[in-house]
Specification:
It is a single chain. The chain is about 60% helix and about 5% strand. By secondary structure, it is mainly alpha-helical. The chain folds into three domains: about 15-80; about 85-190, no CATH class; about 190-250, Orthogonal Bundle (Multidrug-efflux Transporter Regulator, Chain: A, Domain 2), CATH 1.10.1660.10. The chain is globular, with a radius of gyration of 24 Å.
Length: about 250
């Protein structure tokens, strides 16, 4: 059953369905740019059949102009994504964690609680990690992959690691929220494309089904990243190689 296209709200911001990731501009651009073969065939036909040259070249010009216009629209979509202001997303996360902290302290020793302003929360380690990741998501800065993953893990631990648990897990739906998409984009930018493998390719290499790959992603046996622009998910090649090596030893 397809996911509903209506936006849903949760603690981390608007949760968008996968359907909304491929915008009409992107679909139109793909539709026009895929006719490159048709244009070549039309040129070939016009070369050997002079009687249709005028109509053929008119059609080529119109098609090319339409494609260029759609690419211009798509560029606007990409620029808008890269220039997004994540301040509200970060502030919501800070206030959420602060509220949880207040609740815990009120049960432990209420007199020890100290009220903090939003500016103070922004200047703390958690606020600074969020700020770094927002800048990485916008493409304003670059950091080593290790530092990016460390910052993301720090944020996720604070959000999802229960006090009595030995480990934590991140609900897959989190990555459809505004905060999740910001972290996903920062993580995606930290990897080289050659380091990533599609879900189908990963399943084929490991000899398992796609649901198994998703289960290993959920329990963090496989690291993965999401491309926010296309909505596609990729598995880190290094983890696939590690699983293959372990399997070969048995």
């Amino acid at each position: 059953m397809a996911r509903p296209s209506r936006a849903r709200h949760c603690r981390f911001g608007v949760r968008r369905s996968v359907n909304t990731r491929v915008t009409p501009q992107i679909r139109d651009c793909q539709s026009h740019c895929q006719i490159g073969t048709f244009i070549i065939d039309t040129v070939f036909l016009a070369t050997y059949n002079p009687t249709v040259q005028s109509d053929a070249y008119t059609l080529i010009a119109a098609t090319t102009r339409s494609c260029v216009e759609q690419l211009s629209d798509l560029k606007g979509v990409i620029v808008e994504s890269e220039s997004r202001d994540y301040q509200e997303v970060m502030d919501n996360a800070l206030q959420l964690v602060y509220s949880h902290h207040h609740r815990l302290v009120s049960q432990l020793f209420p007199e020890s609680f100290r009220s903090l302003s939003l500016d103070q929360l922004r200047s703390g380690p958690f606020g600074q990690d969020l700020l770094r990741l927002a800048r990485l998501a916008r493409g304003q800065t670059r950091e080593t992959k290790e530092l990016v993953l460390e910052a993301i893990d720090s944020v996720l631990q604070l959000l999802f690691w229960p006090a009595a648990a030995e480990d934590y897990s991140v609900p897959r739906a989190f990555w459809d929220t505004d905060l999740g998409r910001m972290l996903a984009l920062a993580k995606y930018r930290a990897y080289d494309p050659s380091e990533l493998v599609s879900i189908g390719n990963a399943a084929q290499q490991l000899g398992v089904t796609r649901p198994t790959i998703y289960r290993w992603m959920d329990d963090r046996s496989l690291s993965y990243v999401r491309d926010d622009m296309s909505g596609r998910t990729f598995v880190v090649r290094r983890d696939i190689d590690n699983l293959k090596r372990v399997a070969s030893e048995f």
